[in-house]
Amino acid sequence: MVKIAFYTITGQTQRFINKTGLDAHRIEDAHPQYQMNDKYILILPSYQDFMMDSVVDFLTYKDNKENLLGLIGCGNRNFNDLFAQTAKKISVTLHVPILYLLELSGNSADVKNVRQIVKEACKEEHGTQKDLPIQNPSLSNINFLRDFRQKMNKKTYYKASNWNAVEDQVDRAAWARLNDIVYEPRRVPIYKDQDEFFHLPKNEQTMLLHSFVSLTLSSTLQMKVALSKIKEDAENSDEEAAVYNALQYLESINNKAYGHALNVFASKEEQNESYEWVHNNPYLQKKMKLLNTVYQAENSIHKKAAHVFISTGLYHSSFFGPLYLFGQHKLPRTAELIKYALRITALNGIYTGIKFRRDFFKLSKEEQDTVHNWVSDLCDKLYDNELNHIKLLYHHTGLEDKVEHYIRYTLNKALMNLGQEPKYPENIEILDPILITGIMDSAMIEDFFFYTNAHPILKMREIKK
Ligand SMILES: Cc1cc2nc3c(=O)[nH]c(=O)nc-3n(C[C@H](O)[C@H](O)[C@H](O)COP(=O)(O)O)c2cc1C
């Protein structure tokens, strides 16, 4: 019987395992060195390498490396070329196949497919694995959530943050990721795309300009309101507040990037027309109102949900245009800029989603039901409104249907990010292959060294062939 092992940090992979009903061993940070004793499949989320020390300790323990049949990688395609990076790195390092890739807590098709894979694996007679040298298991250097913060001393008026006493893994990982995704918009030479841009059909040019300015509008609300409002709730955690400070800074970079793109491709007159278009667009304005009302209402969990809906879901109606063109190998530098922006937007959604789930799963069943209904209702309102916006934005481009599929797919991801089940039938298979190429292909074609996470594979500590 083939066994299953999995690792999880924020609970999404655990949720996926629960949905499959498979009996699985969870790799525990406190004692990762557990012997599987049998052939098994490993299901893993993706993070930076230093977050995977427990997995490394598990794999290098006794014969676990030799018994590994294959990997199932979980991640988020918004990380484009880093999608499922952990499973991919281990696959290359240990010469074990990737059996399947999925996003977040998976949808019903993922559940079905993975059950099938496990069933097939159980049926098959596997040959002997490669004779790989066993590493000495080394001690994990992850220090685990030490939620022993001292209670506020009554005499103290104000407390200094103590970074040395902080061990929240997610904050630590998010902080490290922040440094990797800082960029300077003007260093991406999108002016080299000008010629190609001016040869696009006029309606596509307009769609792109309106996409940039729609992104600017949403980003302005995030930068000026959402992140400050959410940060107010991080009062018990200085490092969480620090991450939100940084996310706010990064959102300001994105804000500037969209303005930069508009400036490169549009005359002053066209820029004014584009700004007027967003300011008079009833659906964009309604979206801002729906979200801002939530941010101003001071309900901590609602604010986070609204932020996740825009970051993981709605932004993508405007990212679609440039990504779709890039999927046809058009405007590569503009795609590069958009991908930098997307990384920041993705981290905003992922990080806030984790904090939402932390709060949500602490609630009683009844309270969870109330929040679930509220989230579902907000999702419906935002979705209905977004369809109208998509019709305006993609008018005469023939792309409306494809964008609608994409927005349902991204809203499913937002729901998963919020610990809820996806509500739309869309999954990655339904999306247009051109869009998938646009999302997944690397746009880094220039001599552009700012993005520091483009390191070669096989840097992961300790796992060696
Ligand atoms: C700080 C951070 C870094 C991440 N890096 C990646 C990445 O490089 N590639 C990827 O595909 N997903 C990445 N993700 C997304 C997670 O892999 C994804 O949300 C996964 O479902 C989390 O699983 P878990 O909740 O079981 O830990 C990252 C998430 C966080 C919070």
Report on this model:
Residues 127-154 and 445-459 have low confidence and may be disordered. The protein has 465 residues and is mainly α. It has helices spanning 12-20, 53-59, 64-67, 85-94, 108-123, 169-181, 194-198, 202-231, 238-265, 268-279, 282-296, 300-314, 316-327, 332-360, 365-393, 400-417, 433-440, and strands at residues 3-6, 25-26, 40-44, 68-75, 98-103. α1 (12-20) packs across α5 (108-123), α8 (202-231) packs antiparallel against α12 and α8 (202-231) packs across α13. It has two domains: 3-123, Flavodoxin domain (Rossmann fold, 3-Layer(aba) Sandwich), CATH 3.40.50.360; 183-440, Orthogonal Bundle (Ribonucleotide Reductase, subunit A), CATH 1.10.620.20. It has a five-stranded parallel β-sheet, with helices on both faces. Bound molecules: flavin mononucleotide (FMN).
What layout of secondary structure does this protein have?
Layout: E1 3-6, H1 12-20, E2 25-26, E3 40-44, H2 53-59, H3 64-67, E4 68-75, H4 85-94, E5 98-103, H5 108-123, H6 169-181, H7 194-198, H8 202-231, H9 238-265, H10 268-279, H11 282-296, H12 300-314, H13 316-327, H14 332-360, H15 365-393, H16 400-417, H17 433-440
Parallel strand pairs: 1-2, 1-3, 3-4, 4-5
Write down the CATH topology of the largest domain: Ribonucleotide Reductase, subunit A
Helix tally equals 17
Small-molecule binders: flavin mononucleotide
Percent helix, as a range, is 55-70%
Radius of gyration: 23 Å
Looking at CATH, the homologous superfamily of the largest domain is: Ribonucleotide Reductase, subunit A
What is the name of the CATH architecture of the largest domain? Orthogonal Bundle
Parts with pLDDT < 50 across at least 5 consecutive residues: 127-154, 445-459
Q: Give the number of domains.
A: 2
Q: How do the SSEs run, as a string of H and E?
A: EHEEHHEHEHHHHHHHHHHHHH
Main sheet overview: 5 strands, parallel
Structural class: mainly alpha
CATH level 1 class label of the largest domain: Mainly Alpha
